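Case study 2.
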Amino acid sequence: MKMTVTGLTLALTAAVLQACGGGVVREDPLELQESASPLYISEYMCAERWVEIYNPTDSIIDISNYTLVAGQRRRSSNKEEIGPKGYVLFKDLHDMADGTPIYLKDGDGALVDIIDNPKHKKSKSTTRLRLFDGSFMEDNTDRWTPGFSNDLKGYKAYRASRRKENQSGVFISEICADNESAYTDPDGNIVDFIEIFNGSDKAVDISGWGLSDKENFPHLFRFPERTKIHPGQYLVVNCSRDYENISNNRFYCAPFSISNGEEGVFLANRDGYIVEEYFPVSMLEDQSLASLNGKAYIATYNISPGYPNTASGAMQYAADKASKTALPQLFIAEAMPGDESAAGWIELQNRGTGAFQAEGLTLTDENPEKASFTFPQKSIPAGGRLMVYAGQQSAKGLAAGFEFRKSAALCIRGKDGELLDYVSLGDIPSGMSKGRDGSGPAWLFYRTPTPGSANGNGLASVNMAPIASIPSGQYDGIESLKVEFFADGDIYYTTDGSAPTTQSKKYTGAFNLTKTTVIRTMAVKNGSIGSPVTSWTYLVNEGHTLDVMSMTSAPAGLFSESTGIYSNGGHILRPNGQEEGPGIPYPYIQANFWRKWVRQCNLTFMPKDAQGFSVDCGTSIFGGYSRINAKKSFKFKFKRKYGAGKLHYKLFDNRDFSDFDCIVMRTGGQDAYYTLIKDDLASYLMDDLLDVMASRATVFYINGEYYGIYWLREKVNRHFIASHYNIPTEGIDIIQGNCHLEHGSIKQWNAFFNFATTHDLSTKENYQYMKDHMDLQSYADWVIAEAYIGNKDAGNVRVFKSPNLDDKWHWLLYDVDLGLISPRNDGCFLYLKPQSQKICSTDIIRALLKNKEFRALFLDRLEYQMHNVWNREHMNEAIDMFVEQIDGEVERNNNRWQNTYKGWQGRIEGLRKFANERQAYLREVFSTDPYIKPLLHMSKEELDRCFEQ
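Prediction:
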C-alpha cells in the first residue's frame, strides 16, 4: 500500500540521543534549521540497519561534513561527495531501532531530511520518492536496492552486484522441494533436501559458505568451520522450518523448507556473494530436480541424495536405504492410483505368524486432516491380505472415502498417529502397480497388477530420463550449439515433436545445432521400465526481444485432418457469410478446432533474463469466434493425467501467487491482426479497479516453428477467483455471457437478476437488497469501463460470487478486443441504453441510477476513471509501454500472418486518436443523447468535474 507523507511537517517528540563519544545529546531535530540541501533519504531498512541517501540533482554535492543520526549513533559518510543522480549508503547502523528517528544534517548542522517513525519490516525495505510538492511517496518492497535506483533496473543491478562467478567446481546438484514420503532424515523426519557436489579435481573448503531460500539472506544456513568437500563428493543438507525443534546437529540442517515455484535455492560463498542458484519449478510431489553439471536439470522420481544423479545411483540409494529398515508386520504389499476408468486401491499384508488386529489404524494421504480412513474391527490372519479401495463405496472391499491420487503418498498410521508404512503413488507408470514381495522393503513395479493375490515378477525401477548438457533456452550470436545427452542405457530421440519410442532414432553423439530445434528423449535399460519422455527446446540465433514459450506435441494431434485440434478436419471453409458453394458455413462449427479435444504436450518457457520451466500438460484450442482465424489461441491444463497437477512458477510480477491450474496463450482475439494489444492494455489500466487477467507479451513456437506474438494470460475460472482472493474454490459461482452458467450454480444469480429487474431500486429497502447482494462499486466500474472502451462484444461478461469472499456478485473485465476502435464508437450505448440482453442488461444500471445514492457513487467512479485511468496522458504512456514491448517482434509476426508493419503502425495511431478524443465524445453523448441524458441528468458542473477539459 502506497501512501504520501509530507516531510518536515510530522509531529515528533524530542529524542534523547547518545553521541559517539559517549556524551548525551538532547536534540529535537525539528528544532534544527531547515537545510537547503536537495539530498534526501531514498531508502532504508531497519531490519538490516542501513540507510540510503540520494542526490536528485545534476551536480556533485560535497558531503564530507554531513552527519546521519540513526538510533543512538551519529555517522559520517566514508565518501567525500555524492555524484549527480547518485547514492551514498550508510551500513551497519547497529543502534538503528524501530520507531527511533533517522535524520540527516548538513555541514552547518541544519536538518536535511528526516524519517520520524521508521518501521521495522521483516524482509522489506521502505523506498521514498520526493514529489514536486515536497512530500514523499513511500512503498514497502522486498526488492531492496541499497546503493542503486529504486526501480527494476536498479534491482537488477543490485542483484548482479551480489553475485560472483563460481570457479570452485562446487554446484547445486539435486533439490527436493515437495517431499511427502520419498526422503527422510536420519531421525526419520520427512524433510526437503539440497545436495551439492564437487565436480572439480581438488578439495574445496566451504567453511562459512551459505545455503538459503532467500536471496537477500544468503547465510540462513552456514557450513561449519573446517568443512571440506572432496572431488566427486556429495553433501546433503536437510531442510525444514522445524529444524530448531527436531535437529540434534548430527547432520547438516537448514532452518528453511524449499518452495516449489516461488523462491530459489542460493549457494553463497563466505562473503555472502551468490555463486550458484536455481529456482525449483514444475516439480511434483516426491520428485527432485537433478543435474550433472549445475546447468540443465530434470524433474525425476529417481531421487539419489548423496549418490550419483543417474538411474544406477538412485537404485543404489534405494537399496542402501532399504537395507537399514525392515518391513512392519502389516505392510503395504501393492498399490495402484486411480484414474478416470477405475478407482485406485491398496493391498495390505500380514507378514507375522499370528493374526493382526487392524482396528484403529488409519490410512491417510499426505494431509491426514483432509483425507483419512480409520479401519473398523478387522482381523487379518497370518499371511492374509486386506484390500482398501478409493472412493465412497466399493463392492470389492473396504472403501476409504477419498481418492488415491497419482500424486499422493498413502500412509498407514498407528493409533497414536505414528507412521508405520507408506507408499508414494507418483512414480507409478500408467496401467501399472507398485509393491513388494515380502522379503524386504524394496519396491518393485508390476506390469500386471494382482490385487488380493501374490505379486508376480516385477521390475526394480523406472529408468531415469536423459539429462542434457545445457538447458533449453535462447542462444544468440553463435555459429552452432553443442548439446549432449547423458543417461543409463540407450537414448532414443525425435525432432518433430512426437514422443520417442525404441523405434525412434538412437542417440549416438552430440548434436551440433545451427537452427532452432526441439528434441524429445527417453532412455531404455535392461531390467528397468523405459524412462519418461523429456523435452528440450533450443532457439538458435532467433534474436527475439521477448520471452519465448515453446509447445511440443505430436504433429498428428495438432494438424492432421482426422485428429488435429488446429485443423479444419478436411472441411472447406467458406468465406464469412457466403451461402453458396461447397464447404461449411461460417462459423464452421464442424471443423476440428471447435471440438473439445485435449492433446498431451510439453510447455517450455524461455524468458530472456530469468530461469524458465519445462512442464508436461494438456492443450486445447481456446477462444470464441477467434478460433476461426488462421492464428489460434491455446489453453493449457495442468492435470495429473497430462503431467503436472499445477504449474508452480511466478508468471506475473503483478500477481502475488505462483500456482496455476490453467493458463492461456492468446493471440489477441479479434485484435490479433490489428494493434495486438487492446485487451491487454485495457486489463493493465483497470487492474487496480476490477479483476482482470494478467498478461505477458511472449513469442510462441510450436514444434520448433515460429508462430508469432502471443499474450500469456491467466485463465478465468474458479481457481482464478480463489487465487486472486486467497479463498477456497468451493462454493464459487461464475456466470458468463447471457446468463450462462460457467461454474457452480446459477440459482442465486437468477434470483438476484429477477429481483434487480423487477423492483424499484430507488427505494431504501430495495436498494439495501442490492447492497447486500452485489458489489456496487465493482458494477459501476465495470459499466463505466465497458462504455468508455465501447466494447460491442457484449457476450464477453463474467460475474462471480463466493460465500468465502463477501457472498456478493462481482464483475470482472473480460475480452474487450472489439472495443477501443474509434473515438466516436457508439458501443457505450450498449451499456446504458435500453436493450434486452440479460447479463449485460441495462435494466440493472438504469434502475440503479434512479437511486440518488448509487448515482452519486456512479459519478464518483466516473470522475475517478476519467482522471486516473482513461486520461489522455496516462493512456498514451500505457500505449507507449505496450508498443515498446512488442515493437521489435511485430514485423516478423506480421510477415508470418500476412500483414505489414506499416499497417500495424497505422492501427496504433488509431488507438492514440481514441485515447485523445474519446472523453470528448462521451461528454457529448452524456449531455445530449435523448436516452442517456435523462438517465444521468448531469449538470454542467458535474460534466466539468467528471471529464478532462
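Residues 544-714 form one domain.
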